[in-house]
Amino acid sequence: MPTADVGNAPEDTRADAEERETGGRISTAPREDPAVDIPVLGPVGWARWFWRQLTSMRVALILLFLLSLAAVPGSLIPQNGADAFAVRDFRERNGTLAEVYDRLQLFDVYSSVWFSAIYILLFVSLIGCILPRSRQFAGQLRSRPPQAPRRLTRMPAHTTWRTEAEPERVLRAARTLLRGRRFRISPAEEHGGPDGPGGPGSGDSVAAEKGYLREAGNLVFHISLIVMLLAFAAGQLWNSEGGKLVVEGDGFSNTLVHYDDFTSGSLYDTGDLDVFGFTLEEFHASFERTGPQRGTARTFRADVSYWEGADGPEEKTSIEVNHPLKVGDSKVFLVGHGYAPVVTVTDGQGRMAYRGPVPFLPQESLGLTSTGVIKVTDYRDKDGEKEQLGFQGIFTPTYGIDAERGPHSTFPELDYPVLSLNAFHGDLGVDAGLPQNVYQLDTDKMEQFEAEDGDLFRADLRPGESVELPEGAGTLTFDRVEQWASFQISQEPGEGWALGGAVAAVLGLAGSLFVRRRRVWVRARRGADGVTVVEMAGLGRSESARLPEELGELAFALQDDAPPAAERDGAEPAPGRDAGGSTGGTAEDVPAATEDAGPSSRGENE
Amino acid sequence: MNPVDIAVAANEGLAEFSNLLIKSAMAVYALAFVAHIVEWVFGSRSKVARTAAALTADGSGKPAGARSTAAGKGADRVSVTVRTSGGGTEVLERPAVVTRSAPGRRAGVPDGPGAHGGDERGDLYGRIAVSLTVLAFLLHFGAVLTRALSVQRAPWGNMYEFSTAFSMVAVGAYLAFLVAKRDIRWIGLPLVTTVLLDLGLAIVVFYTESDQLVPALDSYWMWIHVSLAIVCGALFYLGAVSTLLYLFRDRHEAKLEAGGRPGALATSVLERLPSSASLDGFAYRINAAVFPFWTFTIIAGAIWAENAWGRYWGWDPKETWSFITWVGYAAYLHARATVGWKGRRAAYLALIAFLCFLFNYYGVNVFFDGLHSYGGV
Ligand code: HEM
User: Fold this and answer.
1) C-alpha distance from A379 to closest chain B C-alpha (Å)
2) CA–CA distance from A226 to each of A130, A221, A233 (Å)?
3) Which of A138, A253, A492, B74 could serve as A277's disulfide partner, Cβ 3.0–4.6 Å?
4) For position A10, what pLDDT does the model report?
5) B94 and A498: CB-CB below 8 Å?
6) How many Cα atoms are found within 13 Å in the side-chain-facing hemisphere of A399?
7) Do B292 and A513 touch (CB under 8 A)?
8) Contact of A213 with A511, CB cutoff 8 Å
9) Contact B154/B228 with Cβ under 8 angstroms?
10) A555: nearest CB among B15, B95, B210
């Protein structure tokens, strides 16, 4: 390159910047003011200043960073929304810390004031950013690519050659070529747009631009983020979600009282519950019997009959793990399954005190070893005294025992079911009015039965077997085993919008990141010696390796209509009036080190 | 023997064969590691100081190469013979394209020659290392494939499988770049090193007998979601290595630019890497290209969660950390477009984002117990 360029760096850079600006803005990204200007006093001034700050890229960046930072504690500290039990556990173990956490809303991070503040600010910033950008982009779409800057050699990629073809013919060919490559072209008649450098000679060039989809994609992406946020917010405010465990043969109807647990968004009205119900006819689970996958669940299927409306017709269907049942706005998901031993307890008087399936909860998935408790509240001992019985049990679908784990189940299906029980009598504490966990036995006020030999009483039963409780306290019969399935019933509005927004976001993002927006100019002028000098230059939104490549190909294609003239020794092409010190390199000027420098100018967006 | 038993035996045989293949792959990766080391050692004999030359050539303090020129592919003044319709031939010349870097960048710094430093024997060992890596990759691939066959499902149901698949994809991507004639052999040594660590960790810490998959994982979304997560992670990893090297190389260049004299080792090693601008550009292109896929990965996960658990987003630890990673990379992309945040600061953001990805994968599986905890550890 001419060494003349090297010395006067500062002016040079400024000239560069100017030149690139005259090339026109090729993005709608806001320009940053490097200096933070002190606001003019007065509320309006402050407001304007604040708004400018909020909608600047810098603040958007900081807010994004804060958002990811703020999401962290929610993954470290148990959250009410995700696992209320864990929160209660935590409270019990660290009382004072829990108070501090409460004050900081750390058990509800994602609905906390501070988390909300960050994302609301971010989205205000986003809207404040999108509006002007959309307006600007719409303007760009209506206008034509700006005329060629005066000195094409200052563009990031540039090439030139001499040809015998007439300039008009070269330009015509260039126009056809670029249009053929789906560039948007400046109109032929126009001689220097209002914002182009204008002046005489602007008519000797063609300006073309391509890759508007990039900007469009970027805007679509950011707008979809807003759509997704709104959909998500709507989902949070109006959602409802509840769980229900149903034993085979039992039913569920979708009213609040029938739920085992229920949570809903703050604007949800339980009157909005869809009216429907279902009966669990049968539950099927099958497991891999052999091989390394032994014990793996192969299918879970709940056959149900359901009805919609108060007395709609019954229909049969099945609910599987990845296939919920959709009724109205609600979806019924299959979330768990297990066994419910059916037991009959007779009391000391020989009267039936309890009969029914008792759901046991699986403790592990390989063999479905399950635990559960049986509470018998309506019981009289052999003397006719009112008392209560409680049984703590382990249910093993396929019984096995080893030294390490003790009794456990070796397979999840009912190959050799055994119910093992400890028995207590006394006060279950259920009358105290406090809500009690049906899967836990509070043995504080209970006493464990002892067998005749003085050991603690314990029974291992196979289906159909009974056991006498010690001291004539009654009998317990293990009749058979039923299965249960647990369901989650949820209503989440805005799902479709969230999905639509997500798809649009991905498409927009792909456009934004994979499309390159670039401009190409072609100028053809008759040189001093009568030979036409063709100059081509390219400008990308950022440096890109493909820009020079593409320019080279375009130039090569253009040479069909503008074949290079035979070199005459010493004939330096003279591209117009700004020839001289800043003339860009002709081919001969390209130093041998070209290859080395290549990657450093390889740019960003591809 | 009944057919079921034969099938079982075959599956167990396959699983064992897979383990054998992983160990063989590790052995070959270890050889590739040694070959890379030899390449770097031979390369250290060459006296490359082109960076310094480029940054300090003329006394004015102005980088000499600021007017960098480069020819795009095929843009050299090469003669191209074109058959014309008339049947004759015509010789066309491709015009050379002159490029200029944006002002303000440390332009004109040439890329280093690569680990071999121009030394022929070094280059030979580098090639050997790549050949060995190809062989190891094939073994690795075979291991993942046989594992998949033995468990009859996608081979990424637990951390062992995820780890092996993850490093396989990283190596595959690296080799694909080489096939595409991108000279990224400089990443070979760090890559092979970490692949060895990853596989070692996988077989020592995470190893699980080919085990079961809970039915919630049994969905075609698993194929989409998890395989994409693996691919994204592997590519983000290449980006992160490049970013890290960029930070070193950038400091080196900055020091030279300021007239400092970096230590001999730093000079020897860093001079052979690509220029900071190249490293940064490579990292950016990877991260930017992967970001939409990562976004889609998360969306696929949400759709799957909706089907399996009845809510598409529940701030489960895994979801939370995916979100954090996503926002981290979004912040990085924004930083690249924000004045004053380009360069090192953006690079730090990229590294943080990648650490979040890693944590999401290792940390969350090990420390938390959410719905995603199928870690099998
Ligand atoms: C909600 C959080 C946001 C996310 C996740 C996000 C994400 C992204 C991503 C991934 C890109 C990269 C696309 C590209 O490089 O072309 C991008 C670009 C961009 N974002 Fe955002 N963004 C968010 C908020 C904002 C806000 C609040 C603003 C405005 C203040 C903004 C302005 C921009 C601009 C101008 C670009 C284009 C930069 C360029 O053309 O190089 N974004 N955004």
Assistant:
1) 40
2) 10, 9, 10
3) A253
4) 42
5) no
6) 12
7) yes
8) yes
9) no
10) B95
Q: For residues A249 and B132, what is the distance between their CA atoms, to the nearest angstrom?
A: 63
What would the pLDDT profile of A250-303 be if each residue is shown by its tens digit? 999 998 888 888 888 888 887 888 899 999 999 998 887 876 667 777 788 999
The partner residue sitting opposite B214, judged by closest CB among A297, A551, A556, is A297
Distance of CA A404 to the CA centre of its chain: 43
Residues of chain A found within 8 Å of residue B225, distances taken between Cβ atoms: none
- Cα–Cα distances (Å) from A290 to A218, A368, A543, B10, in that order, read 53, 17, 60, 12
Q: Closest ligand 1 atom to the C-alpha of B329?
A: 10
Q: What is the distance between the alpha carbons of residues B179 and A352, in angstroms, rounded to a whole number?
A: 79
Asked whether the ipTM of the predicted complex exceeds the cut of 0.85, the reply is no
Cβ-Cβ contacts under 8 Å for B142 (sequence gap 6 or more)? B18, B21
Integer CA distances (angstroms), A192 to A150, B152, B206, B221, in order: 11, 68, 68, 55
Q: Identify which of A75, A110, A296 has the shortest CB distance to residue B317.
A: A75
A259 and A273 in contact (C-beta within 8 Å)?
Answer: no
- CB-based pocket (< 6 A), ligand 1: A 27, 29-30, 55, 57, 60, 64, 122, 125-126, 129, 218, 222, 225, 512-513; B 291, 330, 333-334, 337
Its pTM stands at 0.79
Coil, strand or helix at A475? strand
- Per DSSP, the three-state class of A368 is coil
Q: Which residue has the tokens 């049984």?
A: A391
Measure the CA dihedral B363/B366/B370/B373, to 10°: 120
Contacts of B306 (CB under 8 A, 6+ apart): A495, B312
